[in-house]
Design a protein that fits this description.
The chain is α+β, with helices and mostly antiparallel strands. The protein has three helices and nine strands; from the N terminus they run H-H-E-E-E-E-E-E-H-E-E-E. The strands form two sheets. The protein has a five-stranded antiparallel beta sheet, with no helix packed on it. A four-stranded antiparallel beta sheet has the order 5-4-7-8.
């Protein structure tokens, strides 16, 4: 009796999958940044930063003992006019806002883009909100979202800051109970921070 080639192929696949022979494995990796085109690279490419407590510039006499971490990721559109972003955190309590700030490493600077709860300026999450985990915000940034010293400027000015280490992302916490700066979950000036960097052309 003749068997159709597709039937034979299926039988071989099933037999292989049922074999007890060990099969080689490879580390699993996930590309966070995906360059969409050469035009995107010409306009600045992809950007991001890990956020850590040690990067924060704390008020005098305040020690940041937080174990929180985070990650901010940005992807520039092909036309260079919008940035898609995602903000991810872990081991952190009472996040009520997060932003892109304009300042080099080791110094604090003014807000230029709101990220959490959204890109809408001056809107915060409730104080004392408890544990926040995973992706807490994602959206699209355009020049219309710029505030502070970038208000009215083109997207290219923000990209210049991101490319040259002139901007950072941080997440602010507040337990809603006075006084402030009493420990993790209560650092209104910022609990975790990271200086944004260009991450090149990952096709």
């Amino acid at each position: 009796m003749r068997h159709h080639p597709l039937v034979l192929a299926a039988a071989l696949i099933v037999a292989a999958s049922c074999s007890d022979e060990p099969r080689p494995t490879a580390p699993l990796s996930v590309a966070i940044y995906k360059q969409r085109s050469q035009s995107a690279n010409a306009n600045g490419g992809n950007f991001g930063t890990p956020m850590r407590p040690g990067e924060e510039v704390m008020p005098a006499g305040i020690v940041n003992t937080s174990e929180a971490v985070g990650n901010a990721v940005f992807h520039l559109s092909d036309d260079g006019l919008t940035l898609e972003y995602k903000l991810i955190v872990a081991n952190i309590d009472n996040v009520f806002m997060a932003h892109i700030h304009r300042a080099p490493a080791g110094t604090n600077g003014g807000i230029v883009v709101w990220l959490y709860p959204s890109t809408t300026p001056n809107v915060t999450a409730p104080l004392g909100g408890g544990r926040t985990q995973g992706v807490i915000a994602e959206g699209t940034i355009t020049a219309a979202n710029f505030v502070g010293s970038l208000a009215g400027h083109p997207m290219s000015d923000l990209l210049t800051l991101l490319e040259t280490g002139g901007a950072y992302v941080n997440a602010h916490t507040n337990d809603g109970v006075a006084p402030v700066n009493t420990g993790p979950g209560d650092f209104p000036g910022g609990e975790i921070r990271g200086q944004v960097e260009a991450r090149g052309n990952n096709k």
